[in-house]
Sequence to fold (390 residues):
Amino acid sequence: MMTGRAMKFGWFIMLATLALGACGDQSGGPPAKPAGPSAKGADKMLVQAPAAIRERLRVDLVTSRVVPDVVAAPGEVALDLKRVAKVSPRIEGKVEQLFVFLGGRVRVGQPLAAIGSPRLDELVQEYLVSKAQTDAAESNFRRTEKLSVEGIVSERRLVEERGRHLEVKARYQHVREKLLNMGLTAEELSDLERTVHEESHRYVLRSPIAGVVVQQNVVLGQGVSSGTGLFEVVDTSHVWVFANLPLEQARRFKPGDIGTIVPKGSEPMQSPISYVSPIADETTRTIRVRFDVPNRTGRLKPNEYVDVRLAFEGLPTLAVPVSAVTLVDKVRGVFVQRGEGYAFVPIEVGREGGGWVEVIKGVIAGERVVTDGVFDLKTVLLKASLQAGD
Fold:
């Protein structure tokens, strides 16, 4: 068989002979001559595997498959703006008590701070007075209405009492709305009406959402005015992830397409696209996309950088499993079954995605490539090469 091949391939025969000797094969038969288009060329290395290794080998046919075209882009985690609250008072005063501090976890409606305010005292007094006047005016109107039915009072008197009742009731409703807009609840207003008040009233600032206090801009005794931001509360159980895609890539995707978010040092997670910007960035000419990502365990931290991957399925192409591809002497290739042996065949690869690698050149459909046990074959090949003094 040696005489039928060029001298420059002699070392490959020696390599195969050494591998056979290492396996303890006593049959003495030479390895099967490679056949088919992918067996041609001087870069094919035919090896024999020991019985123990052959038992671990798994092979798969080279076929046409859909290899996803994976688009990768840097991404950034951001707060979900629906879950952010900047809390400020609606009245001026002085902070008399703090209920939470930076880093504290709060519930919806939980008190954050109590503010003493002379203006609040005035409004409460005005509210209680208008409430009493409304009750008295309503009582007079009902009595006059009854007397009018009996003909004891005139119609004019009834109209006057009705007008007085509506006037004081409107004043009462106006003051009540002011207090409700400041954050007082209807239950608190009812308590004001039922109890005796000897102390000044305090405006209680409450959290509108559940979350964590990430900003505290107030201390005990500090004077504050309406609209001053005192706390910021955020809920990071759900976050946004943004990525910028080139125009030609962004056109492939739409809301609902699934992407993979890969945090640094953490497991990947999948999430659908929730928003694709209708306009391109003026400077970079890229399209901004957003993912709404559940984050109950807190793995994603707002303002951190992540990797974003999106897969686009194209036309079927010749492909092999990723596990089949290896490097030998810096040459990328696969092990193709040749009778009782396995030939290392260099290949040219293209796209990679979904566990598959596109093969542009090197193997043809129907050939059998090793998918499990590639490292073992590579070890046998390299060991034989070292023993041959290569």
Notes: The chain is about 25% helix and 35% strand.
